[in-house]
Automatic annotation (TrEMBL):
Entry annotated with the keyword Repeat: yes
Signal sequence interval, chain numbering: none
PROSITE patterns assigned: RHODANESE_3
Protein name: Rhodanese domain-containing protein
A Pfam short name: Rhodanese
PANTHER family in alphabetical order: SULFURTRANSFERASE, THIOSULFATE SULFERTANSFERASE
Keyword terms of this UniProt record: Repeat, Transferase
InterPro entries: Rhodanese-like_dom (IPR001763), Rhodanese-like_dom_sf (IPR036873), TST/MPST-like (IPR045078)
Organism: Aureicoccus marinus
């Protein structure tokens, strides 16, 4: 199963009994969905209940329980999409990969592209479903923590690629979270997630390769970061279209880095 699939591909697979379609939007802004889709509560059910940071990965047990509630089995073929086109669905894709489910793909263009093609929509399913048998197995090698990134500012074993806007990266534009300073992790590289998209879809593999080549990133170990771990997954998935590598996300991202660096000054 490819990491990125088209709406045409998905439409042809709708009768597959193993297919599970999930709307992984950050908020349910529309009641319309792809037929058979269920809503994946990315901000709540699939985020840590213990962390003070936004959107951090959940525990192994929490992820497993929530997947089983959605009827996900070990042999499920999962397609995730979101209502903005491409925004939060790559985060859902990364979570499934990180918890050991390989048969998962992002729908390129999401719900807007589905509607642009004139395909029918239906209300999102909130009905109870048979409990799935999915078993989660957390791969911590997909996750970088603050201590890893702090150590890396000295030994530079990997390059942090930041998906936030240039203004936030350079410290000239404010962060959306009140009281949080903007700026960047030392020695990190800026690649705003908007640069890998065009009209709500991913750019072609050739265009994506050129982007990473221009930034001299093709032969480097990369770790992806953003504000809170969401848009980092967009540029990670872009990299996967042209060059397979470790699926490394700095999950706390700039929010954690800025908070902890400020605490060190006090």
């Amino acid at each position: 199963m490819n990491n990125l699939v088209s709406v045409q591909w998905l439409r042809a697979q709708l009768k597959d009994q193993d297919l599970v379609i999930l709307d992984a939007s950050m908020a349910q802004e529309s009641s319309a969905g792809i037929p058979g889709a269920k809503f994946m509560e990315l901000k709540t059910a699939f985020a840590s209940r213990e962390s003070d940071l936004p959107n951090t990965f959940p525990s192994n047990q929490q992820f497993e329980d929530e997947c089983q509630k959605l009827g996900i089995n070990s042999n499920s073929k999962i397609v995730v999409y979101d209502q903005k086109g491409i925004f939060s669905s790559p985060r859902a894709w990364w979570l499934f990969k990180t918890f050991g489910h390989e048969q998962v793909a992002v729908l390129d263009g999401g719900l807007p592209e589905w509607q642009n093609q004139g395909y029918s929509t239906a209300g999102l399913s909130h009905e109870s479903t048979a409990k799935g048998n999915f078993k989660a197995e957390l791969r911590k090698d997909h996750i970088k923590f603050y201590e890893d990134v702090l150590e890396n500012t000295q030994d530079q074993a990997f390059t942090v690629v930041d998906a936030r806007s240039k203004g936030r990266f350079e410290g000239t534009a404010p962060e959306p979270r009140e009281g949080l300073l903007s700026g960047c992790i030392p020695a990190s590289v800026s690649l705003p997630y908007t640069e890998v998209l065009h009209k709500g879809l991913y750019k072609s593999p050739e265009q994506l390769r050129q982007i990473f080549e221009d930034l001299d990133l093709l032969d480097k170990n990369l770790v992806f970061s953003c504000g809170s771990g969401i848009s980092a997954c967009i540029i990670l998935l872009a990299r996967e279209q042209v060059l397979r590598g470790d699926l490394n996300i700095y999950d706390g991202s700039w929010t954690e880095w800025a908070i902890r660096q400020e605490l060190l000054k006090k």
